[in-house]
Write a structure and sequence with these properties.
With 208 residues, the protein is α+β, with helices and mostly antiparallel strands. It has 2 domains: 3-78, Glutaredoxin (3-Layer(aba) Sandwich); 85-192, Glutathione S-transferase Yfyf (Class Pi), Chain A, domain 2, CATH 1.20.1050. It has 9 helices and 4 strands; from the N terminus they run E-H-E-H-E-E-H-H-H-H-H-H-H. It has a 4-stranded mixed β-sheet with strand order 2-1-3-4, covered by helices on one side. The protein is globular, with a radius of gyration of 17 Å. 33% of the residues are buried.
């Protein structure tokens, strides 16, 4: 069967949760941090990042949104279909979360990549958290407008990636209390059996 490669603390938790929700026949292999830069994994994904899915024929699929799209198309039922209104909105939300919001974390995880001096690094961090604050405020508004339970009004893969992004807030100066609807969503996700299973498979613990 296909194998999803994951690593603790990474966005690979999103497709891991999706696999649990779908009960999809996909093996989940969690590597120790650092193994993504070793030859064994680089032979699978030369980018040295997770997630990646390796298929039985040797083909490899990378990028969380692409893997989620494959899961929805191959194993999804109503609510995860790619030809429904929810499926289209799900694709839009995931594109935003995986590109704009995730990318904005570059200034948090690697500020030295954007600055040459200590003072410049601090300025990068400041601007990064301002940008992230705007993203979280926008996502809090979307979730609130859609009823507060699920990001798009019904459960979708967007909720899996939103949960990843909410876990990362804990690593920044941002406060969960500034995004109350998102905070409640995170708490509900952590009570979900599929999320609990995915966290266990990825050697992670709930934040709450």
């Amino acid at each position: 069967m296909p194998t999803l490669y994951t690593m603790p603390g990474t966005c690979s938790l999103s497709p891991n949760i999706a696999i649990a929700w779908l009960n999809a026949p996909v093996d989940v292999h969690t590597m120790a941090y650092g193994d993504h830069k070793k030859d064994d994994y680089l032979s699978i994904n030369p980018k040295g990042k997770v997630p990646a899915v390796k298929f039985e024929d040797g083909d490899v699929l990378t990028e969380a949104s692409a893997i989620l799209a494959w899961l929805g198309a191959t194993h999804g039922s109503e609510g995860f279909g790619r030809d429904t209104v929810l499926g289209r909105k799900e694709a839009e939300a995931l594109s935003y979360m995986t590109s704009e919001v995730h990318a904005a974390y570059g200034g948090h995880f690697g500020p030295q990549n954007f600055a040459a001096t200590d003072a410049a690094v601090e300025e990068v961090k400041k601007k990064t958290y301002e940008k992230l604050g705007g993203h979280y405020a926008r996502m809090n508004e979307v979730l609130t407008e859609n009823g507060g339970e699920w990001y798009l009004g019904r459960r979708s893969f967007a909720d899996t990636f939103l949960y990843v992004l909410m876990r990362w807030v804990d690593q920044t100066p941002l406060s969960y209390d500034d995004y109350p609807t998102l905070k409640e969503h995170m708490e509900r996700m952590e009570a979900d059996d599929g999320v609990k299973l995915a966290l266990k498979r990825q050697n992670m613990e709930p934040l709450g």
